[in-house]
Amino acid sequence: MPAGSAAGAPDPRGLAPGRARVISLDLVRGAVMVLMAIDHVRVYSGVPAGGPTPGVFFTRWVTHFCAPAFVFLAGSAAYLHGQKLGDRAALTRFLVTRGALLVFLELTVIRASWTFGVDYSQFILAGVIWMLGWCMILLAGLVRLPTAAIGTLGLAVILGQNIFGLLAGATPPSFGWIWQLLYQGGQIPLGRNGPVVTVLYSIVPWIGVMAAGYAFGSVMKRSGAERRRICLRIGLGATILFLVAGGLAVALSPAPDDGMPAALRLLNQRKYPASQLFLMMTLGPAIAALPLLERARGRLADALATFGRVPMFYYLLHIPVIHALALGVWWLRDGTVHHEWFATAPYVSVPDGVRWSLPLLYLVFAVAVLILYPLCRWFANLKARRSDAWLRYL
Predict the structure, then answer these.
(1) Is residue 367 pLDDT above 80, yes or no?
(2) Is 111 part of a structural domain of the chain?
(3) Is residue 358 part of a domain?
(4) How far apart are CA 333 and CA 327, in angstroms?
(5) What's the mean pLDDT in 25-42?
(6) Domain limits at 111?
(7) What pLDDT score does 2 carry?
(8) For residues 154 and 148, what is the distance between their CA atoms, to the nearest angstrom?
(9) Torsion angle, CA of 56/70/309/319, rounded to 10 degrees?
(10) Which among 237, 339, 317 has a CA at the least distance from the CA of 36?
(11) Alpha-carbon radius of gyration of the chain
(12) What is the mean pLDDT of the chain?
């Protein structure tokens, strides 16, 4: 039967050979995993998160695509995995189990990777993997709803997220920690003299992003031409809406004292918690890129697809690899690794005069990716050869 002749049948083009896997999803996921490494090298280099020069600004800005695409495509992957299982109860169990595993990994393996230490009195981070785990657990409670209802709920959470801020303002202070976990983020002390949990990624609006991504998974099951058309409409529509709404916001706001150009102010959207404009700015181009990547070929495409097939394995490896490389660079430069600076990573404070240059930052980034590639290729091949249950969770 010719490709696309059956309604809703996936087009073989864009699918991995022998598997019902959409190559363009792997390519986008792999690209954002690579970009993520830039930001995490930046952490250990001491380079600030944005400003004051265009080079520093865009070093941070380009990594803004990572979390939105990572969470959105995790939702799409959940939908596609559910289609493969053919059993919503089994999908629910998978999401709860994997979500709980991710929360555990954030508090143990990932935390130790950031600091190379186990002193929880100094640093406990509720980061992106923590958030991803809780969102999977919450998504498990939604998968019995119709796909369209899940997508609508996701968009409602994204667009109506400010309501959570209003509700937080009307809540007694003793319950403030609940709203910090849900929406506001920040530091939550565990007892009078206990450690402090830093909530970097709150649940809202990210559960909305994952739910919207889950519904988007149904788009990726459609015939090739229809799939590409819908992706372009959604992606370009979100991008244009961002440019119009963001442009109006910049034009109507007074110029800041720091003299930041209007174009950079347009791109300087709020990430914590992720605003509606931030999500349109990042998800719009990512979704629009999907149909363009379906025919991508060559070594670069193969490498990105490899990273995209094993995103959690990559994530667990890339922080300790970058941390170790950074300590080596500091030792070569200064004769000491400055371990005390990284006791609360990724909240690193490095004096102005000793921060890395951008060329050094990007050199270490390139070395890290080159180290990670053969390891990820090995694990991707392992997953392709074997069907062990534990491999589905990494």
Answers:
(1) yes
(2) yes
(3) yes
(4) 10
(5) 97
(6) 35-221+296-393
(7) 35
(8) 10
(9) 50
(10) 317
(11) 21
(12) 91
* Res 6: pLDDT: 37
Helices 66-85 and 88-105, interaxial angle, to 10°? 140
Q: Residue 252 falls within a domain, yes or no?
A: no
Q: Please provide the DSSP assignment of 326-345 as one string.
A: HHHHHHHHHSS--GGGGTTT
Find tokens 């083009």 and name the residue: 13
CA distance 121 to 133: 23
User: Is the C-alpha dihedral spanning 228, 229, 232, 237 positive or negative?
Assistant: negative
What does the alpha-carbon distance between residue 11 and residue 28 come to, in Å, rounded to a whole number?
18
Domain count, the chain: 1
Share of the chain above pLDDT 70, in %: 95
Give the span between the Cα atoms of 373 and 303, in whole angstroms.
7
Residue 380 CA to chain centroid, in angstroms? Answer: 20
Element holding 219 (H helix, E strand): helix 206-219
With beta carbons less than 8 A apart as the criterion, state whether 98 and 136 touch. yes
Give the chain's length: 394
Structure tokens at 294: 């379906």
Within 10 Å of residue 87's Cβ, how many Cβ atoms? 11
3-class SS at 46? coil
19 assigned to some structural domain: no
Here the tokens at position 68 are: 């939105």
Q: Which amino acid is at 241?
A: L
From the list 335, 324, 321, 333, the residue with the least C-alpha distance to 357 is 333
pLDDT tens digits, residue range 339-358? 889 988 888 889 988 999 99
**Which of 28, 232, 274, 276 is CA-nearest to residue 135?**
274
Question: Is residue 13 over pLDDT 60?
Answer: no
322/297: higher pLDDT: 322
The pLDDT > 90 percentage for the chain reads 76
List pLDDT tens digits, range 85-123.
999 999 999 999 999 999 999 999 999 999 999 888 878
Q: Are 227 and 291 in contact (CB under 8 A)?
A: yes
